[in-house]
Amino acid sequence: MPRAVIENMRDLPLPDFSDYFAEVEASLYADRIHAGLPMEFSRGCWWGERSHCLFCGLNGGSMTYRQKPAGQAAAEMIEMSARYGSSRIEAVDNIMAIDYLEKALPHLTALPEKLAIFFEVKANLKRHEVEKLAAAGVRWIQPGIESLDTRVLKLMRKGTTSAHNVQLLKWCRQYGVRVSWSLLWGFPGECDAWYAEMASWLPLLHHLQPGPAVRLRYQRYSPYHYTAEKHGLKLLPAAPYRYVYPLSERDLSEQVYYFEDSEDHDVGGHFTPRDENRPGLNAVAKGIDAWLKAWRGPTFSMLSMQDNGDEIIVEDTRAIAIEREHRVRGLEREILLAADEGSPETRLCDRPGAANVMQGEIDEAIANMIARKLIVRLDARLVGLALWHPYTPILPLTAFPGGYLDRRSTPVALPRE
Ligand code: SF4
């Protein structure tokens, strides 16, 4: 059935959480609950309007992007924070409005006491944009990273590249912004060799924030669902629904949100991924496990650098480090600086320190930087992996802007009768 759709976001009222906060205050757990304020500033997705990510069913029939004006969004955050005495704000939007970077964040940066804000964002943010987010209190984001292989990203129409994603993870570690992301796999048309390639360089990223590997699920309203045939898919309602709802397959098909490809089912209708025999994917799964383990602490590894104008001193505490300290000069220093911006390899000779240098020498210097594990070559770009010293420490999990429940093991003392 068609639903009513809000066209003008600016007219939506602020949410009223007063009953919730009254209950929290009266609760025995009041001192353990650090509530976050869920707020909505936009609906739909401006990227999906241009190029709908094939797996995404988030917006149903209303992808058209509608947003609150930037100034109003900032003012509402400030007002809600004052009203409920919490600086934690979780934006529930699918994607942050483009003009918030320039028009909403400065109001928040100017606050004497920063808010702690979460936003979902597009992954192709540049360094100065991540810096702006952090300065405004947006210290936790969920970017649509989804993969670290450009060919997989292209398959899903994500509009980003592997280099964008690694750069974003680097800038987030640089400015102390927490990142929630996942590596999706199982896209129609993907090739196992791509995953084998990805697995070979994952250990280089152990100083950056990891995300779990998650199998793609087919969602209603996604292009994979409404053009299934085009992608070689025959979608059936996901198996668990059958155990929950006593409905015919046809009724389920008309109602459920998650689907599985019939190729992934055996004759009994049980889920058996056709991707079982995939050495490349298995290597990525192991690589991600090792990366997640490296991030369980107590200390995180680091790859950072300082430049004195003549020499870059790199400190490397990753498990994969060749040496703890590197001193990089001359042409190699020039390459490291270019790679920090994720430069295309062909533009290297435009740099002052690399002009008039023979291509053979440049190739040798690049090979040396790669062998020292300080840069990675992704789609003909050189991507530097080191952060600049000093960097901002990453937030603890307890700082999640959506709220935090302190699960101390000591029981709460019950009031006497
Ligand atoms: S996955 Fe994110 S960016 Fe892509 S269409 Fe959906 S909401 Fe938009």
From TrEMBL:
One family name in Pfam for this protein: Radical_SAM
Residue ranges annotated for the Elp3/MiaA/NifB-like radical SAM core domain, each copy included: 35-247
Domain of life: Bacteria
Keywords per UniProt: Iron, Iron-sulfur, Metal-binding, S-adenosyl-L-methionine
InterPro entries found in the cross-reference section: Aldolase_TIM (IPR013785), BchE-like (IPR051198), Elp3/MiaA/NifB-like_rSAM (IPR006638), rSAM (IPR007197), rSAM_ocin_1 (IPR023984), rSAM_sf (IPR058240)
Cofactor: [4Fe-4S] cluster
PANTHER family xrefs: ANAEROBIC MAGNESIUM-PROTOPORPHYRIN IX MONOMETHYL ESTER CYCLASE-RELATED, BLL1977 PROTEIN
Protein's UniProt name: Ribosomal peptide maturation radical SAM protein 1
